[in-house]
Prior knowledge:
The chain has about 375 residues and is mainly beta. The protein is about 0% helix and about 45% strand. The strands form 8 sheets. A 4-stranded antiparallel sheet has the order 5-4-3-30, with no helix packed on it.
Amino acid sequence: MVSLADTAPPYHGWTHDPTARDEIPIPLLEGPALCVGTLFAVITGGASTGYQTLIDEGPAWAQRDGNRPANSHTLRYYGNGLMFHVTRVGLRKSTDYGVTWTTSNKPTGFPAATLTHFDRDILTGRIWAVWRRRARDEAVYSSDDSGETWTYRNLQTGEGDVLRSIAVNPVNSQQIAVAGDDFARYGAYITTNGGGLWGFRSTGFLATASVSAYNAIVFADTERIILMAVDSLPKLVGFITNASGGGWTQVLAGQNSQSHPIEMVRVNETTFFLGVMGGTRTSNIFRSTDSGQTWVNLTSYAGFQDVVSMDYGPECDVLYFSQFEPTVGTRIWRLEEALTVAPGSEVLKDLADTSPVHRGLRVLFDL
């Protein structure tokens, strides 16, 4: 047995805990054929939440949680069995690889609040979340006890905006960014002092662009922020800005898309994957190897229009993504040699064909 620290894979999730590497043993992997793990998915559309399956055993899912909370998405894994995912009623947490789950409390004074999105500071364990307190009133809160209690984080100028996506810098707990789709404001709220003071960054951001996807903003490194949006055509547009100041620079444009969903996966500070709807019954997978400055369209997939969840497995250099088409259902795919595969030469493995929607994927090699 070797540990993740011994194999030194790339840091593949800005929400994952790199300190957990020494504590997670995995078998010695000698080739792609031996690269198997456990694939977790949050499933909506009438099915239960918390299914799991062995990746190379096809579509035979084993139930992990019999509850069916509404609007489940954004499944995250942080090592040693710790998992979180978003539901409308609150943030759900498991400490035993999804066998049992608990649901967080809601912000004091807002019993009808619904959870929109979250991120976890991997350095401190603090949870940052966007709560919708009432119609067109979404606010930022933080929690140091996994959602038992919440602290209100005043955006000053951002109260009442429609917020959608929140991200914490994985190497700097003081930097948090929040984006949304209020058409009266264009850009993102950014703090560089841990939420004490927020500034709204809009210079260079298209006045016709909006952010309505949950996982559309991410920190590339200690400074750079990547944000994906769509304009009114609708076309996909991407932007980069510096966390400490400056305007937005457009880095991706002209791709067919819709407002939702958009999925980004951070492999390390230079490499990212992006999944978007490419048009009617079409979806696209992009890759960037220069911190989001340029993107390569690896391929377009006909028949399924939404890329609803993604995860990267560094042990075997594979990208997992699920697609949804209302008239067909959901497919989960495995893309081999994801970091180096040339556009149009991808090798895909079809893992499952089901009717529910897989709103979050995590692939684990430590079970």
